[in-house]
Amino acid sequence: MYLEAGRNGKQPTGQNEWGDWCNVKGTGFGARPTTDTGDELVDAFVRVKSSEESDGTSDTSAKRYDAHCGLGSTLQPAPEAGIWLQSYLEQQVDSANPPL
C-alpha cells in the first residue's frame, strides 16, 4: 500500500467536514517520500499531488468553480486548478511534520 504524504503533516487541519479537499487551510508536508516506512503493511510514503498547484479557484464566477473551493476552510484567493499558488506552498513548508 502507498500512502500520500503530501498534505498530511499537520492534524487537525482547517477542514470543516470530512471530504473538504480544495486548498485546505492548515495542511503541511508529511513524511518524506520513502520505502522505509516502519510498517510492513505500508510499502511507501509518496507525494503525488504537487503542493504548489491550486486545487481549484475560489472565484465563484469562474466557469470551473467548485463549491468546495469557496468554503471558509480553504485558502483564498485561489486561482484555477493547476495554477501556481505560492501561499499554499508556503503553508505546506511552514506546517511540515517532520519540519523541513
TrEMBL record:
EC number annotated for this UniProt entry: 3.2.1.-
Superkingdom of source: Eukaryota
Keyword RNA-binding: no
GO biological process: cellulose catabolic process
GO molecular function: hydrolase activity, hydrolyzing O-glycosyl compounds
Entry keyword Acyltransferase: no
InterPro entries: Beta_cellobiohydrolase (IPR016288), Beta_cellobiohydrolase_sf (IPR036434)
UniProt similarity note: Belongs to the glycosyl hydrolase family 6.
Entry protein name: Glucanase
Source organism (scientific name): Aspergillus tanneri
Source taxonomy: Eukaryota, Fungi, Dikarya, Ascomycota, Pezizomycotina
